[in-house]
Amino acid sequence: MHSIKFGGRTVPLPGHPVIRILLGCLLLLGGFLGFLPVLGFWMVPLGLVILAVDIPMARRLKRRLDVRLGRWLVKRSPKWARRFGFSIGQRPV
Question: How many domains does the chain have?
Fold first, then answer.
């Protein structure tokens, strides 16, 4: 069973790759229609995270975004960076 870690929590995903890819694509398409009342732009990153389980190109894009977000959070707010699991590293003494 595959799962994703997001915001310090683990969320289980469907076991079959075709279902995961369909779910990820549907979330991406729904996110691009985020101006509609029921759908939202929050669906785009969630679809990307789900697609990253099976598609290498999406995995690379997700990793780049994770690194950028982590670096930004460490600079901006170390407390939130630790909360979301981004390493701050060693501080010089």
Answer: 1
Would residue 79 count as lying in a domain?
yes
26: its two tokens: 């549907």
Structure tokens at 84: 């979301």
**54-75 tens-digit pLDDT:** 889 988 988 898 889 889 988 9
**Claim: this prediction has a pTM higher than 0.70:** no
**Residue recorded with tokens 């997700």:** 62
